[in-house]
Each structure stands twice: as structure tokens, then as C-alpha cells.
Amino acid sequence: MTAPTIRRERLLGWGVGVGAVGLASLVLGYVLDPRQALTSYLTAFAAGLALALAALCLVMISHVLTAKWFVVLRRLTESIAATVPLFAVLFLPLLLRPSELYPWLRPISSLPEELRDSVAKKLVYLNLPGFVVRAVIYFAVFIVLAELLRHWSLRRDRDPSADVARRQTVLSAAGLPVFAFALTFAVFDWLMSLTPWWYSTIYGVIYFAAGFLGLLALLAPLALYVERQGAIPAHHAADHYHSLGNLTLTFVVFWLYVAFAQLLVIWIGNEPHEITWLYPRLDTSWAVLGVILVLGMFAIPFLLLLWRDFKRAPSRLATLGVWLVIMLYLEIFWLVTPSVYPAGLHASWTDLAAIAFVGGAMLAVAAWRQRGHPLVALNDPQLPESLAFEGNEWEG
Question: How far apart are CA 30 and CA 251, in angstroms?
Fold first, then answer.
């Protein structure tokens, strides 16, 4: 079997071009309205990072579980995870004027009187030096895990005799708990602290669930592309899509479960500091976006993915995948923007500029780092079993 071809230079060019236009527009937006531009940028940054970290997590899980069916899709997932170092660089613009986003960086006297005491108690943790140091630690964890796993995977491409499977499994098993803690506290720092008088222990899980669902959705159109490049035999491709669709259905349900769990606890508790986060999202025009998310991220994909023939139709699953990636962005938008603009639904042209910049940068980096490497791990000893996978014998 030979490696399928891909026009990586074209993808690299598209990524650079789109990213450059997005960056120029975002810079203009920052000059005109720094707060709006930084809000848009944080939203796009968080959405892109959710995909990259979910890809890293999925790669680690596949190594720990020895998921043979997934081997044919693992290199694609590694390519998305290869963009993790990019986000360490993309994090820097958030430090330009962080007080525009994070109330705990402003004078306590500028906050409503009833919130000052709550925020003051958290300033031992919520301060700029700690914020930066913790970010360095988070990215160090993410980058080390992503780069080591990718390095060993590519090493086997060059040397078929390289015994890297055990290293990948051990690192993944040891790294998953560390990854989980780093992800959770990173989300606490970068997103939850936008409303510092509020907290939720499940907030990191909600972010993870949305990102993992978005990643599984993104793999569907990517898998279709790889199939058309000849990496997956047509007579077995439907079984891979079926399994991917089943995983996507699982996380559609899981996302709703964790989101509803948080809503239920806040609703029942009816505590003033908790309602301050929920109120703008339910009692203003932001509620419209909440309804869209319930329909677009749960109801519609749930009904479609119950249909077995839908999951085995590559083009249909790929279309749903694109839809769910859009829903992922709207979910992050719903988590971030009402904390900055609580009065009602608020959108700006800088949102599109930020998407173009972050999305273009991700595409360019993924294409650049994938140059010279096959789209599938050709020397993986489990690849023949993955290509011959027939999930329909045990799946409904």
C-alpha cells in the first residue's frame, strides 16, 4: 500500500491567505474597539484549542485502549493535535490588555458592591503573574504529550522496526490524568474567570464534551477526504464511518447530560452568585442562542445519528460533521461572550475575523507539519486489521 497524495501546498497557501486576512481585520478591530476584538479572539482561540486538545485526548485514548479500528484515522487526528504548540503562541495576544476581559484585573472598586468581597477572596489565585505562570505549565503539559506521541508515530514511518507502541501506551496512560487536570484548570483560568464571582466544578467537563464532539464531527469530512485519496478501501469505509457516527452520538448525549446537570444544580440552588452567570444566558436574548444550541447540537444530530443508514453514508455524516463544528463555535460563543456583554445577544464582524485568523493558522500549521508524511501510519502493525475492520457484525 502506498501513501495517498494530498495537495498540502495548496492547503498551506489557503491557510496562510485566510489567516492573514483574518489577522489584518482583527488588528483593525482591535484599534477600533479593543474589548470587542479581544472577546472575539478569545472565543475563536478557545474553540480552536478545544479541537486540538480533543484530538490529543483521542490519540491518547486510542493508544490506551488499543483501538485497532481507529488506526486508519489516527494520523489525521495527530495532525490536528500537532497544532497544539500554535496555541501557545496564539495565547500571547490575550495578554495585550487582559483587563478588558477579566474583571479581577480591574480595581475592586469598579465592581458592584455585592460582588467585591467574593472577588477579593480569590485574588490570591486570580492575579496576572499566577495567570501567566499557570498558562506556561498548561501548555508545557499539552505540548510535551502531543509532540512525543507524534514523534514516535512518525519515527515508525521512517523505521518499520521501531518498537514505539509500548512507549505510546505508557505515556498515554500516565498522561491522561495530568492532561485532564491541566485542561480543567486552564478552562477555569481562561474562560470561567470571565465571571470571577461564579464557579462550577463541571465547567471544564462541559468544555471538554463540546470540544470532543466537535473533533469527532470534524473527523467525518476528513475521513471522507482520506477515503477519496484511496487510504481506506471503499468496501470497508462504511464500517469506520458507522463507528465514528456511534462515537459522535455518544458525545451528543454526553454534552447534553453535562450541560443539563450544571443548569439543574444552579436552578435548584438558586444562589445569587450562581444566578449572575445564568441570568444573561436565559433571561435575555442570549436565550435564543441557547435554544439553537439545544436543537443544533443535540436534537437534530441525535435523531439523525439514530438512523443506521445515515451513519454509513459518508457524505451525510460529513455534512453533519461540518454542522457540528459550527455548533461547537456557537457553544463557546455562548460560554464566553455573555460574560462580557450580558445585556443581550451581541455579535460583531470581528467574530468572523477571529475565526478566519485562528482557523487559517490551524490549517496552515497542520498542512505544514504534515508535509512529507503519509496520511495514514503505513508501518503500524495494526493497520491491516484496521483496514479490514467490520463493525457491522456487532453494532446495531
Answer: 36
